[in-house]
């Protein structure tokens, strides 16, 4: 009888261990995001300063902030946030989704003139696209809650340096 309890306890521990491995593997990035290879630019909107990685080609835009951790998105210095700016050659209508994105993010869809069209707070791993109601030329992603902290809404203006915009032309 004791032998059966010991075997049952061992099986339960093995099953619990396997379950923990399976559950934890879903939260661990499967591949690194090569952020250091991307250029950066400094952006300003209202009281928000952002040091943004630049995604200006199809591969970079498709990967975006996938697999990026909260530590990697942590502000690099006092008063400066981290984010990613997505630059397109033409106006876009499609939305962004959060496949393989492990942190919640805010997104601002931006017209060519720098005016914010619409903002959303996007939930990690949600694969339903967040689609703006109007066309946009660029997008900016930052950690969730940053836009609310700074009162950033549709109609606000983001200045993207001309030298950065030339990368898509």
- What would CATH call the architecture of the largest domain? Sandwich
N-to-C CA distance: 77 Å
Low-confidence runs (pLDDT<50, min 5 residues)? 11-29
Number of domains: 2
Adjacency order of strands in the biggest sheet: 1-2-3-6-4-5
**What is the overall shape?**
globular
Main attributes of the structure:
169 residues; Jelly Rolls; 2 domains; 6-stranded mixed beta sheet; 5 helices; 28% strand
Give structural notes:
It is a single chain. With 169 residues, this protein is α+β, with helices and mostly antiparallel strands. The protein has two domains: 1-30; 35-168, Jelly Rolls (Sandwich). The chain is 25% helix and 28% strand. The protein is built from five helices and six strands. It has a six-stranded mixed sheet with strand order 1-2-3-6-4-5. A hairpin with a 2-residue loop joins strand 1 and strand 2. The longest helix is centred in the N-terminal third of the chain and has 24 residues, at 2-25. It is globular, with a radius of gyration of 20 Å. The termini are far apart.
Give the SSE layout:
Blueprint: H1 2-25, E1 40-45, E2 48-55, H2 58-63, H3 70-73, E3 81-92, E4 105-110, E5 116-122, E6 136-143, H4 146-149, H5 162-165
Parallel strand pairs: 2-3
Antiparallel strand pairs: 1-2, 3-6, 4-5, 4-6
């Amino acid at each position: 009888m004791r032998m059966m309890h010991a075997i049952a306890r061992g099986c339960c521990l093995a099953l619990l261990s396997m379950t923990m491995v399976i559950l934890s593997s879903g939260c661990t990035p499967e591949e690194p995001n090569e952020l250091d290879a991307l250029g950066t630019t400094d952006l300003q909107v209202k009281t928000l300063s952002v040091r943004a990685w630049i995604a200006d080609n199809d591969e970079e835009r498709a990967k975006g902030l996938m697999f990026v951790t909260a530590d990697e998105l942590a502000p690099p210095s006092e008063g400066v946030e981290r984010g990613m700016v997505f630059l397109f050659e033409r106006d876009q209508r499609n939305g962004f989704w959060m496949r393989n994105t492990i942190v919640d993010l805010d997104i601002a869809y931006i017209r060519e003139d720098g005016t914010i069209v619409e903002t959303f707070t996007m939930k990690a791993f949600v694969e339903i696209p967040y689609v703006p109601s109007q066309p946009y030329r660029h997008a900016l992603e930052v950690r969730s809650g940053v836009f609310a902290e700074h009162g950033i809404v549709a109609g606000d203006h983001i200045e993207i340096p001309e030298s950065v915009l030339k990368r898509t032309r």
